[in-house]
Amino acid sequence: MSTELFSLAGKVAVVTGANTGLGQAIAVALASAGADVAAVGRSAMDETQKVVEATGRRFLAIGADLGSTEPIGRIVRETVDGLGGLDILVNNAGIIRRADALEFTEADWDAVIDVNLKSAFFLSQAAARVMVEKGAGKIINIASMLSFQGGIRVASYTASKSGIAGLTKLLANEWAAKGINVNAIAPGYFATNNTEALRADESRNKDILARIPAGRWGRPEDLGGAAVFLASAAADYMHGAVVPVDGGWLAR
Questions:
Q1: CA 46, 52, 58, 60 torsion-angle sign
Q2: Which residue in 72, 33, 23, 86 sits closest to 55, CA to CA?
Q3: Which residues neighbour 76 within 8 Å (Cβ) at sequence distance 6 or greater?
Q4: The whole model's pTM is what?
């Protein structure tokens, strides 16, 4: 099989939540495969920019808070104007709130749903309007193990990631015939800011590691290969898939 199938040369990718963690690793992986990157985040993305530009690709930083849909049109416009197009969208931005379901607040519900699900849909919609014009595009949503399982103390996060799995299938059904591939990656337990509390809890950390056949937490760079694959021509006949990258968690 030719490695050209996995090349992203000449492509432009938008990656949300690209200032750190999984989003940063995905942005770097796409750039390493040849894509120019528009990175969207609430905070400075200097480190991401440095690593992306070291691959020889162009980098565009777009400051935006996806807690509302207000910046979505601007994100697409700045990408197209600054990098000349929009071929790949990775909906990675996400937040989490933890509390017992009996105590969960409406504010914590709305905050998570707005970032993780609502903005992901409307950014996909805005990107797809550009992609439809040329009859091609790749949208990759970042789902979760909690797209398959219930979890505990993360009601809005579980709801949002279950919604992402369903939304991925819905959009694939509507847009596959238009040349747009919509798929998702479901990371397992990764060492990121979102899981810092779990890793700091000695008992929970031990229980989680005991369940992972690989015997370790995932590293952000472990997602890079799956992202490049789903963004490339190698995945042209994949639509509506939710691909676990979990160290074997779901196999147990």
A1: negative
A2: 33
A3: 14, 86, 123, 126, 127, 129, 130
A4: 0.96
Is the distance from CB of 160 to CB of 118 less than 8 angstroms?
A: no
Is 189 among the catalytic positions? no
Q: Give the residue among 230, 89, 242, 67 at the shortest CA–CA distance from 170.
A: 242
CATH T-level assignment (fold) for domain 3-245: Rossmann fold (3.40.50)
- In the sheet with 36-41, reading across from the earlier edge strand, the strands are 59-63, 36-41, 12-16, 88-91, 137-142, 180-187, 242-245
Comparing CA positions, the residue from 168, 219, 161 lying closest to residue 189 is 219
Domain segments of the chain as ranges: 3-245
- The Cα 241–Cα 36 span in angstroms is 25
Active-site residue (options: 26, 116, 119, 157): 157
For the stretch 192-242, pLDDT in tens is: 887 888 899 899 899 999 999 999 999 999 999 999 999 999 999 999 999
Closest CA to 37 of 17, 59, 55: 59
